[in-house]
């Protein structure tokens, strides 16, 4: 980050307001325009200047472009950290600026309410389907408690929640919680589900959780980025589970962990049509073989059989770069 470019970008009051808004939550360009009471093209120009200066960053979800702050304590950039502290101090000490920021934050309530209404509408459309499936397996609370226990022995570090859905797992492991990760990236292919997750997570501290659109067969991350990878009720949607786990392994650091929460093998064939399940659960051997092939050392599975469908937690530890298929076969 160049200090001259940074300081020039902060000379405009609107850009100062945008940075304080982004410190509170991630926002679409149109949402920023609504809060600021300015046209979207004008706000887009301000956003371009902030992004060029490295103070903010864009990411696209379908036809929407979302903005997040690119400065803060978790970024590891001393200049960016200093700028974040300066802006926070200015809001506390500059009366006029504080009043303007307070008014902007009040306007954020309208954004939050709109997101929550959209999420509620989406849930209402699908509530019967999800309730039907939920009644077949162990209570969600029990599954979450067992998962927290299973992962609670070591720090979670950088966590990737693949197929975040409503964002519940990202919420459960959010930074600052008792069992929280250092940072969470919540990924989903569905724009509808990302909007639901955004509504659920929007009141958590900004910067701790990122929402990303992406496919579990082509994760948009560099190799060895994450300490913990989670697939919660996701793998049964995969036509090729081996490919999904190979991609998860690619982004897992050596000695990092994977947790797969899914159904044990069952014969409820109607779930293929009613809920688009590609796989009717998994046997322990199938998951063990998949983890081995991907380069993980499997741990003992955890079973919850309080419902008609048994839910299992399968854990694995990344061994490093997977050996070739021939070498793995020779070692068996």
Automatic annotation (TrEMBL):
The residue ranges of the HTH arsR-type domain are: 1-94
Please report the name of this protein according to its UniProt entry: Metalloregulator ArsR/SmtB family transcription factor
PROSITE patterns per the record? HTH_ARSR_2
**Which Gene3D superfamilies does this one have?**
Vaccinia Virus protein VP39, Winged helix-like DNA-binding domain superfamily/Winged helix DNA-binding domain
Which SMART domains does this chain map to? Answer: HTH_ARSR
Q: Which GO terms describe its molecular function?
A: DNA-binding transcription factor activity; S-adenosylmethionine-dependent methyltransferase activity
Q: Which InterPro entries does the UniProt record give?
A: ArsR-like_HTH (IPR011991), HTH_ArsR_DNA-bd_dom (IPR001845), Methyltransf_11 (IPR013216), SAM-dependent_MTases_sf (IPR029063), WH-like_DNA-bd_sf (IPR036388), WH_DNA-bd_sf (IPR036390)
Organism, scientific name = Pontixanthobacter aquaemixtae
């Amino acid at each position: 980050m160049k200090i001259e470019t940074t300081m020039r970008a902060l000379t405009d009051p609107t850009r100062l307001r945008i940075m304080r808004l982004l410190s509170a939550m991630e926002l679409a360009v149109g949402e920023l325009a609504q809060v600021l009471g300015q046209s979207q093209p004008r706000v887009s120009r301000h956003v371009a200047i902030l992004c060029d200066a490295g103070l903010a960053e864009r990411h696209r979800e379908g036809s929407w472009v979302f903005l997040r702050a690119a400065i803060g304590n978790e970024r590891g950039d001393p200049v960016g950290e200093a700028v974040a502290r300066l802006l926070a101090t200015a809001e506390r000490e500059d009366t006029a600026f504080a009043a303007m920021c307070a008014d902007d934050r009040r306007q954020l309530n309208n954004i939050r309410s709109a997101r929550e209404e959209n999420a509620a509408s989406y849930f209402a459309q699908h509530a019967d389907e999800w309730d039907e499936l939920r009644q077949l397996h162990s209570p969600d609370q029990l599954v979450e408690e067992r998962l927290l226990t299973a992962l609670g022995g070591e720090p979670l570090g950088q966590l990737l929640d693949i197929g975040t859905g409503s964002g519940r797992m990202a919420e459960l492991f959010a930074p600052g919680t008792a069992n929280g990760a250092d940072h969470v990236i919540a990924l989903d292919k569905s724009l509808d589900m990302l909007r639901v997750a955004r509504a659920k997570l929007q009141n958590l501290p900004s910067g701790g959780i990122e929402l990303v659109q992406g496919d579990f067969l082509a994760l948009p991350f560099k190799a060895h980025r994450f300490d913990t990878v989670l697939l919660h009720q996701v793998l049964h949607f995969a036509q090729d589970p081996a490919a999904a786990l190979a991609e998860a392994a690619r982004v897992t650091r050596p000695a990092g962990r994977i947790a797969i929460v899914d159904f044990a093998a069952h014969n409820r064939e109607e779930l293929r049509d009613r809920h688009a399940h590609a796989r009717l659960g998994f046997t322990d051997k199938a998951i063990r073989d998949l983890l081995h092939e991907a380069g993980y050392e499997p741990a003992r599975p955890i079973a919850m059989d309080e419902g008609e469908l048994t839910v299992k937690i399968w854990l694995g530890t990344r061994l490093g770069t997977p050996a070739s298929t021939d070498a793995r076969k020779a070692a068996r």
